[in-house]
């Protein structure tokens, strides 16, 4: 691997707790190559969201190294787009204006903001709803706006925390299709947190299974399925076998060592 897009080495994080510091992340070592799609899976509380928010620069860590393109991550930046499960749209702005707002904050002119926002609303197939307010959009549509917003300032990395977790199964599949299409056409590095093992296998090049107590990397799986992916692959024996192995790793890592 040349200089990794993301390099995490010996990273540790403690949260203050009632019974003393709580070791949330222990000695995390992880490298993501340019354009790689990597999912983090693991039992609730193993530190997936903590790790993602540290990479986003939204919170700090206590020990270790965290680099993007070889340079330290010291806070949030336009090189990393973030999408959360909650849509985080501004309710008083339309879909188009929500995307423009992020671009204006990045210092672009009004004309540039309008054109780039329009192009990204189109990228997520929402042109017909560009002038709708969040309250007029379904959950899947709101998440399309959030993805358009995160991609609009052309980040090198997309960080997604359970982005489809609140959606019904059909919408979730549609969003997975959309994300793979965007990723295959535009290629960027993605770090994706999910509880859904099928989703992780379907989307990823590599799956990192984390374990609990303390949160750590427990197992790693390379997804050998060809690309472009399609929903028919989900029924293939290779897909099902990998899904089983990932689930077994999550189960094995779900028991707190200290309990
Ligand atoms: N701000 C905080 N202060 C104290 N403890 C925290 C804080 N945020 C998370 N934790 C604790 O750190 C551990 C890891 O939490 P985190 O949310 O990162 O796990 P997760 O794997 O993303 O869980 P889930 O799948 O349920 O979202 C948990 O024990 C959680 O209670």
Automatic annotation (TrEMBL):
<dbReference type="InterPro" id="IPR017871">
    <property type="entry name" value="ABC_transporter-like_CS"/>
</dbReference>
<dbReference type="GO" id="GO:0005524">
    <property type="term" value="F:ATP binding"/>
</dbReference>
<keyword id="KW-0813">Transport</keyword>
<keyword id="KW-0067">ATP-binding</keyword>
<feature type="domain" description="ABC transporter">
    <location>
        <begin position="6"/>
        <end position="237"/>
    </location>
</feature>
<protein>
    <submittedName>
        <fullName>NitT/TauT family transport system ATP-binding protein</fullName>
    </submittedName>
</protein>
<dbReference type="InterPro" id="IPR003439">
    <property type="entry name" value="ABC_transporter-like_ATP-bd"/>
</dbReference>
<dbReference type="Pfam" id="PF00005">
    <property type="entry name" value="ABC_tran"/>
</dbReference>
<dbReference type="InterPro" id="IPR003593">
    <property type="entry name" value="AAA+_ATPase"/>
</dbReference>
<dbReference type="InterPro" id="IPR027417">
    <property type="entry name" value="P-loop_NTPase"/>
</dbReference>
<comment type="similarity">
    <text>Belongs to the ABC transporter superfamily.</text>
</comment>
<dbReference type="InterPro" id="IPR050166">
    <property type="entry name" value="ABC_transporter_ATP-bind"/>
</dbReference>
<keyword id="KW-0547">Nucleotide-binding</keyword>
<dbReference type="GO" id="GO:0016887">
    <property type="term" value="F:ATP hydrolysis activity"/>
</dbReference>
């Amino acid at each position: 691997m040349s200089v990794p897009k993301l390099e995490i080495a010996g990273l540790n994080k403690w949260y203050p707790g009632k019974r003393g510091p709580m070791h949330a992340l222990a000695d995390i070592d992880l490298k993501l190559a340019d354009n790689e799609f990597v999912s983090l899976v693991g039992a609730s509380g193993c530190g997936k969201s903590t790790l993602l928010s540290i990479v986003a620069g939204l919170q700090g860590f206590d020990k270790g190294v965290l680099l993007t393109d070889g340079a330290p991550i010291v806070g949030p930046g336009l090189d990393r787009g973030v999408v959360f499960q909650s849509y985080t749209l501004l309710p008083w702005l339309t879909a188009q204006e929500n995307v423009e707002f992020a671009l204006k904050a990045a210092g672009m002119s009004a004309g540039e903001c309008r054109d780039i926002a329009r192009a990204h609303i189109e990228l997520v197939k929402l042109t017909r709803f560009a002038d709708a307010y969040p309250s007029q959009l379904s959950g899947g549509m709101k998440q399309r706006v959030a993805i358009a917003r995160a991609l609009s300032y052309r980040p090198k990395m997309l960080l997604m925390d359970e982005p489809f977790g609140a959606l019904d199964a059909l919408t979730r599949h549609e969003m997975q299709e959309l994300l793979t299409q965007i990723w295959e056409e535009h290629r960027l590095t993605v770090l994706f947190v999910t509880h859904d093992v099928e989703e992780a296998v379907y989307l990823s090049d590599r799956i990192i299974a984390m374990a609990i107590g303390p949160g750590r990397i427990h197992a790693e799986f390379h997804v050998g399925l060809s690309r472009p992916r399609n929903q028919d692959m989900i029924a293939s024996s290779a897909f099902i076998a990998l899904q089983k192995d990932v689930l077994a790793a999550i189960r094995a890592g779900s028991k707190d060592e200290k309990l």
